[in-house]
Design goal:
single chain; alpha/beta; Rossmann fold; 2 domains; 7-stranded mixed beta sheet; 9 strands; 34% helix; binds glycinamide ribonucleotide
Length: 214
């Protein structure tokens, strides 16, 4: 399974393609981090499944290439997935980061980028997968929730876990206040662990990710 090879540790900055669907605050955290040459990665392109979103504006303000592929421009999801894979491949990424990308990638995408695509999810996997992690956690009545960074596989938020952060649920939380608190920790987690993947390299063995040569 492809990965950033441990033997190439930080020789050249890893090439990141980031996919977004909305506000792009996680993208912004990565943009800020990659401004430091010691971070070990740079963002080559930002892609989206819709136009007119702040995530794309953030990329454009920082001079990063963008592309937009709405599902509605294609006959079906299969064709969209193939087009997404092709478009991402043009940028030759080492790592693809789904940062608030609200679409499932499909077989064509995973054939090219399986093992080197990570996603961040606003819940503690395996609890509350899907589009409404904070709302589902709140409705269930959990006292802690959080965020999960994982390597994307064919399931919904089921891939090997890279990192998790725990966030308390407060008595007067609504979906919005809880999600915003999660996102504070989520952004730091994303930057910390994507940076580590880029700098140290990693290998995947089943559900276990190992950094560097160890
Ligand atoms: C993040 O909390 C991310 O985990 C979530 O969308 C938010 C995007 O925020 N993604 C999902 O729920 C995917 N299942 P942002 O656009 O401000 O980075």
């Amino acid at each position: 399974m492809p990965s950033i090879p441990p033997q190439n540790q930080a020789q050249t900055p890893a090439r990141l393609v980031v996919l977004v669907s909305g506000a792009g605050t996680n993208l912004q955290a990565l943009i800020d981090a990659t401004n430091n040459p010691d971070f070990g990665a740079r963002i080559i392109a930002v892609g989206a499944d819709r136009d007119g979103i702040e995530g794309l504006d953030r990329a454009e303000r920082h001079g990063i290439d963008t592309f937009v592929l709405p599902v509605s421009d294609f006959p079906d999801r299969v064709d969209w997935d193939i087009a997404l894979a092709d478009q991402v491949a043009e940028h030759a990424p080492d790592l693809v980061v789904l940062a608030g990308f609200m679409k499932l990638t499909g077989p064509a995408f995973l054939a090219l980028f399986g093992g080197r695509t990570v996603n961040t999810h606003p819940a503690l996997s395996p609890s509350f997968p899907g589009m409404h992690g904070p709302r589902d956690a709140l409705e269930y009545g959990v006292k802690v929730t959080g965020a999960t960074l994982f390597v994307v596989d064919a399931g919904v938020d089921t891939g090997p876990i890279v990192a998790q952060v725990v966030v308390p649920v407060l008595p007067d939380d609504d979906e919005s206040t809880l999600h915003e608190r999660i996102k504070l920790s989520e952004r730091q987690m994303l930057v910390d662990w994507v940076g580590r993947m880029a700098r140290e390299g990693y290998t995947l063995d089943g559900r276990t990710i190992t950094f560097g040569d160890s």
